[in-house]
Amino acid sequence: MALISPSRRLRRTPFSEGVEAAGVKAYTVYNHMLLPTVFRSVQEDYRHLKTAVQVWDVACERQVELRGPDAARLMQMLTPRDLRAMLPGQCYYVPIVDETGGMLNDPVAVKLAEDRWWISIADSDLLYWVKGVVQGWRLDVLVDEPDVSPLAVQGPKAEDLLARVFGDAVRDVRFFRFGLFDFQGRSLVVARSGYSKQGGFEIYVEGGDIGMPLWNALMEAGRDLDVWAGCPNLIERIEGGLLSYGNDMTDDNTPHECGLGKFCDTQTAIGCIGRDALLRVAKEGPVQQIRPIAIEGPALPPCDRWWPVLAKGKRVGRVSSAAASPDFDTNVAIGMVRMTHWDPGTELEVDAGEGLRKAVVQPKFWI
Amino acid sequence: MALISPSRRLRRTPFSEGVEAAGVKAYTVYNHMLLPTVFRSVQEDYRHLKTAVQVWDVACERQVELRGPDAARLMQMLTPRDLRAMLPGQCYYVPIVDETGGMLNDPVAVKLAEDRWWISIADSDLLYWVKGVVQGWRLDVLVDEPDVSPLAVQGPKAEDLLARVFGDAVRDVRFFRFGLFDFQGRSLVVARSGYSKQGGFEIYVEGGDIGMPLWNALMEAGRDLDVWAGCPNLIERIEGGLLSYGNDMTDDNTPHECGLGKFCDTQTAIGCIGRDALLRVAKEGPVQQIRPIAIEGPALPPCDRWWPVLAKGKRVGRVSSAAASPDFDTNVAIGMVRMTHWDPGTELEVDAGEGLRKAVVQPKFWI
Q1: Would you state the pLDDT for residue B1?
Q2: What chain B residue is nearest to A103 in terms of C-alpha separation?
Q3: Do residues B132 and B106 share a domain?
Q4: Chain A, 280-299: which have a CB under 8 Å from a chain B CB?
Q5: Does the record bear Transferase in its keywords (chains A, B) (predicted)?
Q6: Tens-place pLDDT, residues B303-360
Q7: ipTM of the complex, rounded to two decimals
Q8: pLDDT at B244
Q9: Residues of A marked as binding for substrate?
Q10: Would an 8 Å CB–CB cutoff place A126 in contact with chain B?
């Protein structure tokens, strides 16, 4: 494995000091920002995430803020999910599509008010698409990247930890809802959400200056809960079927191919830029789709490129994420498979660059 | 220094095999793609670049292709540089600005034909801005990222090496012009350009399948020229005043602040989206600007964040790139300095996190 070269362009976060002090071993780059990937080891981090509580520097989930009279109209232009019933205080997972229905990002939209939204983005410069659309349509809305850095608290003991720092009222926050909670005189958005299946919260830290104070307060309060610094865990997120934009899907894929049809209301999402393009696929369904795939044999090499998925020597898909799962005693993987071969139980072969492996389409993700 | 975690999202290039075989030691991430930063050491790579010839995997300079009747109109909408006199076969360095005059990218535009352009981009998803603008304005133009990966050949012996592979006609290609040259039956755009001051070319490799054949042909043909695998060199590019988007400037900066006023013809660039916003700054000039800065003392730590530039304890700017220069026996740096303190010879102080250093504004970049 190679080193990562430091530069200002790979932005540090308000929590970088804490991450470094905790002994981060590796990073990826996400929205031009450092995202930790390993602390002790991917396997140790995995086990700990499932049993205790971790604090994650996910500042790289940058926000695109929409503010002004056209904010809600603009938000609906961006996604085929019908937003009419969405209330302030709610978070929606929203596929963002271009005029061809191709996915540009798969963020969480946070509705702060009718005329103020945050879009908490995956790894692409969604700000550029939104600004371009606003410019072309001359919308009356301000779009920018505010000084807001999410800090995630994930794991079975996350609620206990957060209650110690923000008070017991945080326990009442429902899934994909948020409340405003005080920390050192600042009112912060705290949502029950996060990129794991172990439960937890994301704190939208507004103002980089309170990043380390909050990090330290969480570490201090969680000492007897065995709190660690952590990060999104490759194994756990594959087990949980949490997709990664740029890995598992790109702008070539529709939301339906990604199994995100349940987040699309294409018929009623009036105003969505990709609506025309998606109406047909919404009705007829896609010809390929994301599937959980178990790959047999010993632990695979890192999945750093799409691995061909074959059936009788013919290419029928690709694997985009894979890892050896300690809990399920197999290589868990996410792939895109053609409809001819996507039924659960279908036996396939995967070419991970070291000979073909037997693989089986699973009925559902592991957790 | 930490490791970089492999994933499909950090895309490999058509030349990655060659880069790995050459013993790459470190990477950065650029346009969601791996960009090598060190082979032997930054200092050894530097010396070699100035004396011999290197082959650089700069596939991360992705292309935004514009094709169709509105392509030229669109290109002019994107930049304050007047493109009316530009001919097919020319390359222009073009600041790209938004409606506020803030820089979104600083690419090279390659005019293939009146209705077909490549924009060879720096590190931001310019494709998203361009697609948004096209969508909003309903322009009649196709915009996408083609399978084109630049391979740079840089250094004093670059022309000799290229002549061996493409024939002597390549010697006639003038600076920032390109010609079409044959390789294994494919016609490739070969431009005299590149991200160094040592001279050289960029080959726009169309079709990933010929990436490694071309890489190998160059390595083979250049054996007695002491050809190496190389990469943009931090020291050399600072000495040469080659700016890096995301390091030295962001969307907060106008082209004029970046010293790129000579590439702006704001008065006559009719149609440019940022024209209104830039007219005033084009006339009056900016209040801060990029400057070469020499920083005294021993070699500095890596510049992984903006370092404050101070005058009598007051902040008057920032340093965004810095490295110890063997040839100039000082730390060479690029900074943004307020007009009150930007005159050559002005003595300043730089806070690189380890005590204040004396620094002096230079009359020009070093090479």
Answers
A1: 78
A2: B128
A3: yes
A4: none
A5: yes
A6: 999 999 999 999 999 999 999 999 999 999 999 999 999 999 999 999 999 999 999 9
A7: 0.97
A8: 98
A9: 202
A10: yes
A133 touches chain B (CB under 8 A): yes
Where does the pLDDT of residue B39 fall: very low under 50, low under 70, confident under 90, or very high at 90 and above? very high
User: Is the distance from CB of B359 to CB of B311 less than 8 angstroms?
Assistant: no
pLDDT in tens, B67-91: 999 999 999 999 999 999 999 999 9
Q: Residue B129 belongs to a domain with what CATH number?
A: 3.30.70.1400
CB contact under 8 A, B304 and A6: yes
Interchain CB contact of A364 with B (< 8 Å): no
Residue numbers of A between 317 and 356 with CB closer than 8 Å to B: 320-321
Pairing of strands B96-97, B103-105: antiparallel
Average pLDDT over residues A67-77: 98
Annotate chain A with three-state secondary structure.
CCEECCCCCCECCCCHHHHHHCCCCEEEEECCEEEEEECCCHHHHHHHHCCCCEEEECCCCCEEEEECCCHHHHHHHHCCCCCCCCCCCEEEECCEECCCCCEEECCEEEEEECCEEEEECCCCCHHHHHHHHHHHHCCCCEEECCCEEEEEEECCCHHHHHHHHHCHHHHHCCECEEEEEEECCEEEEEEECCCCCCCEEEEEEECHHHHHHHHHHHHHHCHHHCCEEECCCHHHHHHCCCCCECCCECCCCCCCCCCCHHHCCCCCCCCCCCHHHHHHHHHHCCCEEEEEEEECCCCCCCCCCCEEEEECCEEEEEEEEEEEECCCCEEEEEEEEEHHHCCCCCEEEEECCCCEEEEEECCCCCC
Q: Do residues A251 and A103 lie in contact, with contact meaning Cβ atoms separated by under 8 Å?
A: yes
Going by C-beta distance under 8 Å and a sequence separation of 6 or more, which residues neighbour residue A108? Answer: A91, A92, A93, A94, A119, A120, A176, A193
Query: Is pLDDT above 90 for A1?
Result: no
What part of B 104-123 touches A (C-beta under 8 Å)?
A: 104, 123
Residue A252 belongs to some domain of the structure: no
Q: Do B6 and A136 touch (CB under 8 A)?
A: no
Identify whether residues A25 and A125 lie together within a single domain: no
What is the domain extent for residue A346? 288-367
C-alpha–C-alpha distance, residues B130 and A7, integer Å: 27
In whole angstroms, give the CA distance from residue A315 to residue A310. Answer: 4
> Would you call B7 and A303 a contact, using CB atoms and an 8 Å cutoff?
yes
Q: Are residues A138 and A72 in the same domain?
A: yes
Portion of chain A with pLDDT greater than 90, in percent: 98
Question: Does one domain contain both A199 and A56?
Answer: yes
B226/B346 same-domain check: no
* Closest approach of B166 to chain A, Cα-based (Å): 31
Residue B207 lies in a domain: yes
Nearest by CB to residue A1, choosing from B3, B8, B123, is B3
CB contact residues (below 8 A), chain A span 193-212, against chain B: none
Structural domain count of chain A? 3
Binding residues of B for substrate: 202
Query: Same domain, yes or no, for B194 and B57?
Result: yes
Contact list in A for residue B32 (CB cut-off 8 A) is 123-124, 246
- Token pair for residue B174? 């003038």
